Request: fold
Amino acid sequence: MAPIISINSLSKTYSNGFKALDSVSFDIEEGEILALLGPNGAGKTTLISIICGMTNPSGGQVTVSGHDVVKDFRKTRAEIGLVPQELTTDMFETVFNTVSFSRGLHGKKPDPAYIEQVLKDLSLYEKRDNALRELSGGMKRRVLIAKALSHQPRILFLDEPTAGVDVALRKDMWQLVERLRKTGVTIILTTHYIEEAQGIADRVGVINRGKLLLVEEKNALMRKLGRKQMTITLTEPIQAIPAELAGYSLALGEDGRELVYDYELGSEDGEIARLLSAIDAAGLKFGDVSTRQTSLEDIFVSLIGEAA
Reply:
């Protein structure tokens, strides 16, 4: 099956000489959830703006369902819903009319029942007759999501959708994303809450300074770059690691009471047992063993640091 979005050698240089994107290439598969991670100014929003047809590229090509986003703008834009970072709505219009109007802008016939269901999914139904200026910031964010879904898009972009919103909206947001995934909607999100990306994404892309560092299936990325750290707390402090343990690349804690061992995910079977047996044979007694696994955030910070 052909990818629903294909990005080839995409570049964007602004008039002031700033290069926001530098030869970015990757595909997005239909029905997946892709988390796009990167620091502020990395190029995430520029990339989304080009795919959504709001900014023209300086070079390269993007296709959506096989159509060029520049040459076939109307066809590609009809496929896409976008939840932007900024609140851009008519503050004096009602919630229902705002969402219905967005549907009409995409050439869709009126469908009050569908709009009502979207508002119910986002806990907005009780506010349907309220003017937007009467809503809280979190409720206005929900309206942006409703507008993006108004024309039943096959692709949904969420640009920092939970930034600065309450916990309840974040929970509702991810429940909605799960429901949309089940209907086949392709979802691309950017977020600073990396633990959210780790919990919901199928694949992860990391971008920094306009360059794509990687796009990889999340679990494969965790296996490849993830590590575990085991801390062994000794009952008595030691001055140095015994020579018998030299082959295990152990680190000694500052107080001499902890042995710290880093190992790759999946390599623990047998290896840990041998290490603990070797520690016992060296005459060391330990009272506690704890482990910590590398998170997606650890991997992200490492990748960005290497690219700096």
Notes: The chain is about 35% helix and 25% strand. The chain has a mean pLDDT of 87.
